[in-house]
Design brief:
With 408 residues, the chain is α/β, with parallel strands linked by helices. It has helices at 4-9, 12-24, 33-45, 58-66, 121-137, 159-165, 225-243, 281-301, 320-334, 352-355, 387-407, and strands at 50-55, 74-83, 88-94, 145-151, 176-187, 191-192, 196-197, 201-210, 214-215, 251-259, 265-266, 269-278, 305-313, 317-318, 339-340, 360-368.
C-alpha cells in the first residue's frame, strides 16, 4: 500500500511554489495562455504526455460578448495522461481567476490589476500537478489510465463543456471523474463528502427589450422599454413563488436593469439580466420553459420586441455508488474523523457538465476556518499546509479506484 500523503510531503515545497506562481499571474476566462504554458512546462518536467483541448465556437464567443464578457478566441484546456489501458479515471482542476482586486498583502500577491485567484483555482492546479508527480512515480502500478483535466473558464460556467465538446472524455473513454474544491471558510484539514445533488443549476437570462422612444409628455405615442422592463422584473420574480413548490429552494434574482439616459426621454431600449438557481431537475425543466413564455407574454402585451441571450449550467451530481467506492480512499488520507458532510453548496460549478456524463464525485477541502473571508472575496486567504492533502487525495483515489476495478 502506497502512503501518498507521506510521499506528498516530499513535494510540498513544489506544490506551494506552483500555487504561488499561478497566484501572482492570474488570467480570466477561456483563454489562459500563460497558465496553460506553465502547466505544460511542468508536465514536460515530469515527462507526462499532454494535448491542448477545447475550442470556442463563434456562436459561443458572440453570446459571451453580448453578455458583457471580453472576446476570447481560444479555450486553453490541457489533457494529460498517466498509465494506459482501461478503465480510465479523470482528475479535474480548474485554472481561471476572477476580476477582483486582491487586498491580501503577501509575497505572492497578484501582479495584475483587478485580477485575482479568489476562488482557489491556483491551488486546484497546484494540487493536481502534485498528484501528477505522485502518480508518475508509480505509473507501473496503475491498473488503467489517469486523465488529468486542466480546464479554463469555470467562472464563466462553460469551460468544461467546451473541453467535453472537443473530445476530452474520449481517447481513452473516461469511466469516472473526481474533483476537489478548496473552501477557505471551512475548517482546515476537513473534507466534506456528499451524495446526490451537490450544487445549484444556474440559468441566466439577458433580455434585450426594444420599444419605440419619445417625449415623456407623450407616452401614448411610445412603446416604453423601461416600463416593459419593470413589468418583466415583477413578473419573473413572482413566477417561482407561484409555480415552484415551497420546498424546492428555487431563487430568481435580477442582477442588472439598464434603460434610458435622462428624465424627459422615454427610451427605445432596455436590458434586464437575471438568473435562476435550483436543485431539482424536474422543477428546473418546468421553469426553464415558463421563463421564456413569461418574457414573451409581458413584452408583447405592451407591444415591444425582444431577444434573449441565455446561459445554462446544470447541477453537479455526486454518484452515490462511486462516492461509496472512494470513501475509504479519502479516509486513508484525511482520517475518518475529518470526513464530514456539509450538504449542498449554494453556488454553481461547471464540473457539473462532467458529472452529467460519467459517475462523479466532487469534494470540498477546508483550507481555513469558519468565519474567514470566503471565496470570491478580495481578502480570501488559504492555509498552504493543506495543499499536500489535495495532491494525496487525487493520487490515492485514482490509484485505489483503478486497483479496485481490476479485482472485480
Amino acid at each position: 500500500m502506497i502512503n501518498f500523503f507521506e510521499e506528498a510531503k516530499n513535494y510540498e515545497e513544489q506544490i506551494i511554489k506552483d500555487r504561488r506562481h499561478l497566484h501572482k499571474h492570474p488570467e480570466i476566462g477561456f483563454d489562459l495562455p500563460q497558465t496553460q504554458k506553465y502547466i505544460q512546462d511542468r508536465l514536460d518536467e515530469m515527462e507526462i504526455p499532454y494535448t491542448s483541448c477545447g475550442t470556442v465556437p463563434d456562436e459561443v464567443r458572440e453570446k459571451y460578448i453580448k453578455a458583457g464578457f471580453s472576446s476570447q478566441e481560444n479555450c486553453t484546456g490541457v489533457i494529460a495522461t498517466i498509465g494506459h489501458g482501461t478503465p480510465c479515471i479523470l482528475l479535474r482542476a480548474d485554472m481561471d481567476a476572477l476580476p477582483i482586486q486582491e487586498e491580501v498583502e503577501v509575497d505572492f500577491k497578484s501582479q495584475l490589476e483587478n485580477k485575482m485567484h479568489a476562488c482557489g483555482h491556483d491551488s486546484h492546479v497546484a494540487m493536481l500537478l502534485g498528484a501528477a508527480q505522485l502518480l508518475k512515480n508509480h505509473e507501473e502500478d496503475l491498473k488503467g489510465t489517469v486523465k488529468l483535466f486542466f480546464q479554463p473558464g469555470e467562472e464563466w460556467g462553460f469551460g468544461s463543456k467546451l473541453m467535453i465538446d472537443d473530445g476530452a472524455l474520449e481517447n481513452p473513454k473516461v469511466d469516472v471523474a473526481f474533483g476537489i474544491h478548496i473552501m477557505p471558510d471551512q475548517q482546515a484539514g476537513t473534507l466534506s463528502v456528499s451524495k446526490g445533488t451537490l450544487t445549484q443549476a444556474m440559468d441566466t437570462y439577458i433580455v434585450d427589450i426594444k420599444g419605440n422612444g419619445g417625449h415623456s409628455s407623450q407616452p401614448h405615442k411610445t412603446v416604453d422599454a423601461n416600463m416593459i422592463m419593470n413589468q418583466l422584473y415583477t413578473s419573473l420574480n413572482l413566477l417561482f413563488t407561484r409555480e415552484a413548490a415551497p420546498d424546492q429552494n428555487v431563487t430568481f434574482s435580477i442582477g442588472a436593469m439598464n434603460g434610458g439616459t435622462v428624465t424627459n426621454v422615454i427610451p427605445d431600449k432596455a436590458v434586464l439580466s437575471g438568473n435562476m438557481r435550483s436543485y431539482d431537475q424536474k422543477t428546473r425543466d418546468y421553469l426553464c420553459e415558463r421563463i421564456p413564455e413569461m418574457i414573451d407574454y409581458v413584452v408583447k402585451a405592451w407591444r415591444g420586441e425582444y431577444s434573449i441571450t441565455d446561459f445554462h449550467t446544470p447541477t453537479t451530481y455526486n454518484n452515490p455508488k462511486f462516492v461509496d467506492e472512494i470513501t475509504p480512499l479519502l479516509q486513508e488520507v484525511m482520517g475518518d474523523e475529518n470526513i464530514v458532510d456539509n450538504g449542498v453548496m449554494s453556488g454553481s460549478e461547471d464540473f457539473s457538465y462532467i458529472s452529467q456524463e460519467v459517475p462523479s464525485a466532487f469534494v470540498v477541502l477546508g483550507t481555513g476556518e469558519e468565519g474567514a473571508p470566503p471565496v470570491h472575496n478580495p481578502r480570501m486567504f488559504q492555509n498552504e499546509d493543506i495543499f499536500k492533502y489535495g495532491a494525496a487525495l487525487h493520487a490515492n483515489v485514482a490509484m485505489g479506484w483503478l486497483h479496485s476495478q481490476s479485482e472485480n
